């Protein structure tokens, strides 16, 4: 029996079980994170809890404590994921566009952000919470997104500078606020201040207006 045990330990199959466990843990962590994001997007923080996330993920709630340390750790993981969201949805390349001026840069950011936000229910939820539900959890998610966006702009701008006399921080804040309001209004009622936001053509019209505003300020 001892010889058989030694053979088993040294056999190729002996290392398969720990490797499988590592893979299973990674899959479970991803399933928990995806379930948490889905739950937040659909129901908000009101129904966001360990039991609800575990049910949606199809796992034991103890695994959430083990892998994330509980609800706060799970929110922290979602915040980290928002940084990845910025990198994935607002790529750090020119997309075939020559960024010769600060206006080029801000036009690209504005259009990418508009497209990314209007196609992401969870991010729209977070935007709505920022102005209506100023809790610690919401602040953490908002700060993670804002930080990731600021880092994107810092890395991409290089030596590009706004025209003299333009308060770029104020202008950019207003442009981003306009984009956020457009996507929230479009999702809620399909229009914003009389501008229809229901069809791809409607959104193309909004994007063109956004480009003209950015170019009007930055040239």
From TrEMBL:
<feature type="DNA-binding region" description="H-T-H motif">
    <location>
        <begin position="49"/>
        <end position="68"/>
    </location>
</feature>
<dbReference type="GO" id="GO:0003700">
    <property type="term" value="F:DNA-binding transcription factor activity"/>
</dbReference>
<dbReference type="InterPro" id="IPR001647">
    <property type="entry name" value="HTH_TetR"/>
</dbReference>
<dbReference type="Pfam" id="PF00440">
    <property type="entry name" value="TetR_N"/>
</dbReference>
<keyword id="KW-0805">Transcription regulation</keyword>
<dbReference type="InterPro" id="IPR050109">
    <property type="entry name" value="HTH-type_TetR-like_transc_reg"/>
</dbReference>
<protein>
    <submittedName>
        <fullName>AcrR family transcriptional regulator</fullName>
    </submittedName>
</protein>
<dbReference type="InterPro" id="IPR036271">
    <property type="entry name" value="Tet_transcr_reg_TetR-rel_C_sf"/>
</dbReference>
<dbReference type="InterPro" id="IPR009057">
    <property type="entry name" value="Homeodomain-like_sf"/>
</dbReference>
<keyword id="KW-0804">Transcription</keyword>
<dbReference type="GO" id="GO:0000976">
    <property type="term" value="F:transcription cis-regulatory region binding"/>
</dbReference>
<keyword id="KW-0238">DNA-binding</keyword>
<feature type="domain" description="HTH tetR-type">
    <location>
        <begin position="26"/>
        <end position="86"/>
    </location>
</feature>
């Amino acid at each position: 029996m001892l010889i058989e045990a030694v053979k088993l330990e040294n056999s190729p199959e002996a290392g398969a079980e720990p490797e499988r466990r590592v893979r299973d843990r990674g899959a479970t962590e991803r399933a928990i994170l995806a379930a948490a994001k889905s739950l937040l997007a659909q129901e908000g923080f009101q129904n966001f809890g360990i039991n609800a996330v575990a049910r949606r993920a199809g796992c034991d709630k103890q695994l959430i404590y083990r892998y994330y340390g509980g609800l706060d750790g799970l929110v922290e993981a979602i915040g980290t994921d928002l940084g990845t969201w910025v990198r994935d949805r607002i790529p750090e390349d020119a997309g075939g566009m020559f960024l010769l001026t600060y206006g080029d840069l801000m036009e690209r950011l504005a259009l990418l952000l508009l497209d990314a936000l209007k196609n992401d229910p969870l991010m729209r939820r977070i935007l709505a919470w920022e102005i209506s539900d100023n809790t610690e959890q919401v602040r953490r998610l908002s700060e993670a997104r804002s930080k990731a966006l600021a880092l994107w702009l810092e890395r991409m701008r290089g030596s590009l500078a706004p025209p003299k006399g333009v308060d770029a921080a104020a202008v950019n804040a207003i442009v981003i606020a306009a984009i956020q309001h457009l996507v929230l209004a479009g999702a809620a009622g399909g229009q914003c201040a009389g501008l229809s936001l229901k069809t791809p053509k409607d959104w193309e019209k909004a994007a063109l207006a956004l480009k003209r505003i950015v170019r009007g300020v930055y040239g």
